[in-house]
Amino acid sequence: ADPDPLQDFCVGILNSTSTSLNGFPCKPASQVTSDDFFFDGLSKEGNTDNVFGFNVTPGNVLSFPGLNTLGLSMNRVDYAPGGMNPPHSHPRATESGVVIKGKLFVGFVTTDNMFYSKVLTAGQMFVVPRGLVHFQMNVGKGKALTFTAFNSHLPGTVVVPTTLFASKPPIPNDVLTKTFQVETSVIDGIKAKFGA
Ligand code: GLV
Ligand code: MN
Hints:
Layout: E1 54-59, E2 73-79, E3 84-89, E4 95-101, E5 103-109, E6 115-121, E7 125-128, E8 133-138, E9 144-150, E10 158-159, H1 160-165, H2 173-180, H3 184-193
Antiparallel strand pairs: 1-2, 2-9, 3-8, 3-10, 4-7, 4-9, 5-6, 5-8
Helix pairs in contact: 2-3
The chain binds glyoxylic acid and manganese (II) ion (MN).
């Protein structure tokens, strides 16, 4: 989904203050080394000690600047038993993933409101078309692990529950009570769960 690159590589300078463009400015080729093209950030299990019981470790342009302008990135996603990656979407990329360990219920909903889903185990792949809301839930007994890939160096993530119930500043309750056809107390209860 990202534009085609204009050079072999453009190792990103993340902290440039002088230049802004679609992506990051390129490190001068004379300063580029092998280290710019390798990243070991996905080697470690993420901390799943949170309300959802999951952790995303991103391997995108922000953590791995060698990906700058190259149009792809990957995540490591760890799931505690019963953990889930809650409903979310990526505005700038289609996602593909492979289950490495465990048993995962994977699904997405289309713009026609069709829900497509399947339970996957190690070695099985899934795809989520760009921008569609999707989730994964660990339905096995132990931990689960997936690696996901995106056709953007920075796919972006819109997390449905935090977008609606934990934005800063918060979305007013009269918007949310009308949206979900419930009383204010229900909305306050949900907001409280997210520390709002
Ligand atoms: C999984 O859905 C991910 O965004 O890595
Ligand atoms: Mn995703």
